[in-house]
Amino acid sequence: MNYKYDAVTDKGEKKTGLVEAPNQDLAVSALQKRGLIVLKVTEEGTPGNIFQLSFFEKVKSKDVVILSRQIATLFEANVSALKAFQLLATNSENKLLARKLLRIVEDLQAGVAISDAMNKHPDVFSSFYTNMVRSGEESGNLTITFNYLADYLDRQYALTSKTKNALIYPGFVIGIFFVVMILMFTMIIPKLSEIILQSGQEVPVYTKIVIGISNIMVNYGIFLLAGLIALIGYIVYLARSLRGKQMIDELKITAPIFGPLFRKVYLARIADNLDTMLSSGIPIVRAIQITSDVVSNSKYQAILITASEEVKAGATLSQSLSKYETIPQILVQMIKVGEETGALGQILKTLAKFYKREVDDAVETLVSLIEPVMIVALGLGVGLILVSVLMPIYSIAGGIS
C-alpha cells in the first residue's frame, strides 16, 4: 500500500511524497534508509476511494494461475515466503491482487501461516486453494503444491473459457436477430403497411398479424422496453436467490442441447478436484467436502455433500454416487475399480482427462452445428416477414398494371 510522508534531510530540507510498503513500520524504515528524518507517515486513500477501486477491480482466474506459478518458482529458488510475497505484491500488474498480497505479507510478518493468511481473502483464494496450501504446509511440499495448483487452475481456466466461448457466438447471432427484427418492425414495416392499407385491397391474415405486431411496437415500444427491463431485473434478482440459483443449475444440466455439455464440465471439474487433492494427501472426506464448495452447481453440490457424509460413515465413494442419475455409471464403475485397486487418484486423473476431451469434442460439434442453424433461422425469420408484406404490394402493383 502507499503511504504519504513528511520528512526532512540532514540539511533541513523538507521532503513530501509517497512510499510503497506493506505496513507503516516498513514505510518508515524505507524512508530512513534514504537518509530522511521522518516527521509523519499516513496511509494514502479514503474509504470512498477504496470502495471505488474494489468495486471496479477484479482478480481473474488467469491472475491466480500466474501467481501460483510464480510462487512455486520463487520457492524452488529458495526464496523465503515473506520475501516471495513482497516481490509478487510489488510487481503485480493487478492492483487489487497487489493489495491482497500486501495484506498477506502483513499476516506473515505477524507469524500467521500462508494458508490462514490466504483464507482471509476468499474472493481470490477459494477454500480448495487454501486447503491445498495447508496440506502443502503440513507435508513440507509447498513448492509441489503450488505447481499442482497452477496446473489445476490452468486446466480449469481453459475448460471454462472454451465453454463460455462456445456460447458467445450463438448469443451474438441471437442478439443480431432481435436487433434486425426490431428495426424492421419499427422502421420498414410501418412504411410498407401504409401502402398496403391505402390500396383498399383485402389484406391476408398473416400480413395483418405482421402489421399488428409492428403497430404495437411503434405505439407501445416504450412500455415494452420498460417491461423487458423489469423482466431482466426480476430474472437477475431471482438468479441471486437460493431458489433461483437452484432452478438455473437444474436447467443447465437438463437443457436439451447445452445440458450434456454442462454435465461433462461439472464431472471433469469433480474428477480433477478430487485427483488434485488426493494427490496432495488431503483425506477423501475433506476432499469431497471441498469439491462440493467449488463445483459451482447446487445439484452436484448436494450430491457431494451427501456423499461426504456417507463416506465418513463408512461407505465407499462409488456406492454413494451410484444412486444418482446425474452421475454416469461409467464414472461410478471406474471409481469402484480405483477403490478396489488402491489407484483411485490415477483413475480420477484418467476420468478428468476423458471428460475434458468430451467437453472439447462437444464444444466443437456444437459450434459447427450452431453456425449454419443460426444463419438459416435468421434468414427464414427475415424472409417470412418480408414476404408477408411484399406479397400484397406485388398484388397491388399487378392490379395497377
TrEMBL record:
It holds the Pfam family T2SSF. Coiled coil: none annotated. It comes from the Bacteria. Residues 68-190, 272-392 form the Type II secretion system protein GspF domain. One of its GO terms (cellular component) is plasma membrane. The chain crosses the membrane at residues 166-189, 209-237, 373-397. Its main location: membrane. It is found in: Cell inner membrane. Keywords: Cell inner membrane, Cell membrane, Membrane, Transmembrane, Transmembrane helix. It is a multi-pass membrane protein. PANTHER family: GENERAL SECRETION PATHWAY PROTEIN, TYPE II SECRETION SYSTEM PROTEIN F-RELATED. Belongs to the GSP F family. This is Type II secretion system protein GspF domain-containing protein. It comes from Candidatus Nomurabacteria bacterium RIFCSPHIGHO2_02_FULL_38_15.
